[in-house]
Write a structure and sequence with these properties.
Layout lengths: L1 H28 L1 E2 L2 E2 L4 H9 L7 H11 L1 H32 L12
């Protein structure tokens, strides 16, 4: 069970960090809640496209930025990363203390 929790902690932390970084990347590229940022990568991309097709990848990013979805996803990713790191910390801490106690099982409630 502890190995499963540890793997879950790693997965949550990694996916949370990846989600947050992709949100930051989209914002830095110029997809903001005010629209496409002037002189940004997104602005250059849009000018090279001309007429943006509905449902295209660019249109999806533009819509997500305008609706504030990119910011919400970034914050959510951060929360998931912190939760995963907390789970990983607690799991690792209980395994370490169990080893120090000679392999005796530990109740996680001991810490809180």
């Amino acid at each position: 069970m502890k190995n499963i929790l540890k793997k879950m902690g790693i997965a949550l932390t990694g996916s949370g960090i990846a989600t947050t970084l992709s949100s930051i990347a989209a914002t830095v590229a110029g997809f903001t809640s005010e629209g496409i940022l002037l002189n940004s990568t997104a602005a250059t991309w849009q000018s090279s496209i001309g007429s943006v097709a509905s449902g295209s990848f660019f249109a999806t990013l533009q819509s997500a930025g305008a609706k504030g979805t990119i910011a919400v996803v970034g914050i959510s990713g951060g929360i998931v990363a912190v939760a995963g790191a907390g789970l990983l910390y607690i799991t690792t801490k209980t395994q370490l203390i169990s080893k120090l106690r000679g392999g005796l099982p530990i109740n996680i409630k001991t810490f809180y």
